[in-house]
Amino acid sequence: MELKKNPEADIEKLRSPLVLIGLLFVGSLVLASFSYTEEVDSGLKNDAGTRTAAIKYEQEVKKDEDTPPPPPPQVDAPVPVQEEIIEEENKEEIATPVVDVIPDIKIEEETVIAVEQEVIEFPDVEASFPGGAAALQKWIVENIQYPQTSIEMNEQGRVYLSFVVEPDGSISNIAVERGVSPDLDREAKRVVRSMPKWNAGEAKGKKARTRCRLPINFTLN
User: Fold this and answer.
1) Which residues, other chains included, contact 32 with Cβ-Cβ below 8 Å and sequence gap of 6+?
2) Residue 84, CB half-sphere, CA atoms under 13 Å: how many?
3) Beta pairing partners, 210
């Protein structure tokens, strides 16, 4: 008996779509497998990177631990200043024995007070120049020096002097009683002062201080 195929129940018509479905399924599986391997590879790569980073960090930490810390900076220690040792002398006062000192007794010397003798204006014996009045006039003429300024100014006249003849014949207390000019007065005093000793005057039989007066004439020829 021959079997007849039902055209509606023909399987050949369904073969091609089933094949396409199978291919799609296989392709999707292949794509899924590839995507999974890429994720696994990327995960592995990330794990490997983190592991290498961790290893490097551990190595750096070990290196830091192995290397000794740098030495501290050297600071120059301050040089100690030697203080001068001042040796103080022993200031303990040594008690000195007290010795009674006898004060020096000063013997006062006798002071001699010279009492100036009175100048006698009118003695019993007048004082005189050795050799008399003529010798006196000659000595004055020989020793007088007419001042040049007085010559130029034509100064001339008579200078009246007074002086004291001491008991030893020396002359003191020369004074101008009436003068002509400063230069002529000065020259007259100089001449009297340079005179030799006179013969002293006497009063009551003793040599005394007597006053004498003398005019000196200045004339131009």
Assistant:
1) none
2) 3
3) 120, 165
Q: How far apart are CA 90 and CA 152, in angstroms?
A: 86
Residue type, 118: E
Average pLDDT of the chain is 75
Quote the CA–CA distance of 173 and 19 in Å, as a whole number: 183
Is residue 197 over pLDDT 90? yes
How many Cβ atoms from other residues are within 10 Å of residue 67's Cβ?
Answer: 8
Tell the CATH topology of 132-218.
TolA/TonB C-terminal domain (3.30.2420)
Q: Give the mean pLDDT of 52-80.
A: 56
User: Is the full-model pTM beyond 0.70?
Assistant: no
pLDDT confidence of residue 220: 87
CB 165, CB 117: distance < 8 Å: no
Q: Show the tokens assigned to 140.
A: 């004055």
The β-bridge relationship of strands 206-208 and 210-218 is unpaired
> Does residue 174 contact residue 193 with C-beta atoms inside 8 Å?
yes
> Amino acid letter at 41?
D
209's CB contacts (< 8 A; 6+ apart) are 117, 118, 119, 120, 164, 165, 166, 167
- Distance (Å, whole) CA 155 – CA 142: 20
**Distance (Å, whole) CA 192 – CA 216:** 9
Question: How is the chain split into domains, by residue range?
Answer: 17-62, 132-218
